[in-house]
Amino acid sequence: xxxxxxxxxxxxxxxxxxxxxxxxxxxxxxxxxxxxxxxxxxxxxxxxxxxxxxxxxxxxxxxxxxxxxxxxxxxxxxxxxxxxxxxxxxxxxxxxxxxxxxxxxxxxxxxxxxxxxxxxxxxxxxxxxxxxxxxxxxxxxxxxxxxxxxxxxxxxxxxxxxxxxxxxxxxxxxxxxxxxxxxxxxxxxxxxxxxxxxxxxxxxxxxxxxxxxxxxxxxxxxxxxxxxxxxxxxxxxxxxxxxxxxxxxxxxxxxxxxxxxxxxxxxxxxxxxxxxxxxxxxxxxxxxxxxxxxxxxxxxxxxxxxxxxxxxxxxxxxxxxxxxxxxxx
Length: 329
Hints:
It is built from ten helices and 13 strands. The chain is an alpha/beta fold and 329 residues long.
């Protein structure tokens, strides 16, 4: 069976900036595929190439079995990262306008209810909160009941309750057979929604798979974070590996060390060690690896490899970073 969304070795450059460097993926009917990656990795360029709004320099994109530019636009829903509709139209008027572009659209009031704005239909767009505005934008991508939906950071600026409303909506779409490709910086969002996740770095998909498979392969070991001012050397006699966290998620304002590769049943042994050694601590927290660990590990690895390449080429990387400033996602 042919994939609904397919990219084969897509390439795209803007001047000297490489936005896509051989990106490949395939997404099946009813699948939710999440693209994650650092700013400047090429996510938005890849979405544009897949929807036919950017012509790639090399490779091939296919959408519903056709070149993207040949597909009936009524079968697609596209939410760009930047979307600024007229502010002096109400939420209902905006959705009615977009509904009018299609032959058989959904009722705008039903769409408002789906995105959690049934009571805000008469409010001007400019008077809605930022999160409500984003939900109206999500609704505009769904008003034609698309077969394939591309959502570029759909929940940016939406509060937690509204975010969950959008998540449930995306899950319902997939359950009804809609294929969804979304980009996100929210690892919890990707982990909850996506059947598969692709990490894009330097214009290439460096890893793809289900969230569970990616965590198993790249997430590392479980960890026990000990909030303490003590140095890792104080834990030399502990039987588990201990390190000072290098990444922000395990750090605290008072200091911390991380005990790696430890199961919950073994936490008592660490507590006994702390008490025996007289090491003061304020908190213990245990966690399994998750998609954020995968993201950080792969992004760190890619950055080190890129830095090494630049070093071998005699550059310091500043020009590359400045060139990437024009690519927003």
